[in-house]
Amino acid sequence: MSLEPRDKAPFICTVPLILAAALVIATPTWAQTSATPSGETPGYPSTGPLSGYMDFHFNKEAHQDGAIDFHRFVLLLSHSFSPRIRFVGELELEHAFVEGLEVGGELELEQAYVDFLLTRELNFRAGMLLAPVGIINERHEPPVYHGVERPFVDTVIIPTTWFDAGAGIHGELRHGFRYRA
Q: How many domains does the chain have?
């Protein structure tokens, strides 16, 4: 049995409708979620085993061949052990890391810390932390800066992304004033 062109028409019209309905149903509903509770890091879920993002772009300097740079592939881990104890981790693969190559990338554990949430005003954090110096150091995802690459100031003068083992405090005071030290 073969399908004539007139027999294919209902099938062709039905498939896009089914795909559109599936996309609408599968779309997350963030509008009904509450604001980020105090002490939680925006962008990181309170529970959830794994999330992440990737970033790649095409660079072409004058008088040189263009190249695609698989800039970063980031895995984010987050888990709440209790309402007051939470873990956040970030593993980042930059520039398509290939072991043994001089011009390869790097694999780094950028963040891995435990938060001890005491009150809205005072919380403790310990582990591998991003230093709280500048917006780009803590919020260095591509939508934060304008352009393909990070700004010169934030790559040469301030060593982004600056992270190290340590401990600190953070919280939110009156009128929405947040601090991290």
A: 1
Q: What is the pLDDT of residues 62-105, one digit of tens each?
A: 888 888 878 888 899 999 999 999 999 999 888 775 555 556 67
Mean pLDDT of 113-132: 93
Give the strand order in the sheet containing 178-180. Answer: 48-59, 67-80, 85-94, 106-117, 123-130, 163-172, 178-180
* Mean pLDDT across 151-166: 77
Q: Report how far Cα 26 is from the mean position of its chain's Cα atoms.
A: 21
Alpha-carbon torsion 20, 22, 24, 26, what sign? negative
Determine the structural domain holding residue 154 and report its residue range: 41-59+68-180
Report yes or no on 1 lying in a domain.
Answer: no
In a domain, 143, yes or no: yes
The dihedrals phi and psi of 167, each to the nearest 5 degrees, come to -145, 155
Is residue 116, in this structure, part of any structural domain at all?
yes
